[in-house]
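name: query_chain
kind: protein
chains: 1
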Amino acid sequence: MDAKEFLRLKEKIARLQRERDRAEGALQRVMKEMREKHRVESLQDAEKHLQKLESKKDEATARFQAASDKFEEKWSDRLR
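structure:
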């Protein structure tokens, strides 16, 4: 390994360390936001919370669709 290759590797290592530091900072910010907004402490907790929210959304969508269908059935003759 010559000096030129050594300097290239040294710069690459420094760049990768900076990228790692940015990624760690971003992860810490996201985890803090998850704790504050959603009261979850880990990615596993977040996944469970997301599943619950998706289930609630699906239930609300089904209720809305049923109400919409009922409304349309009752008032369709006046809507045309």
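note: The chain has one domain: 3-79.
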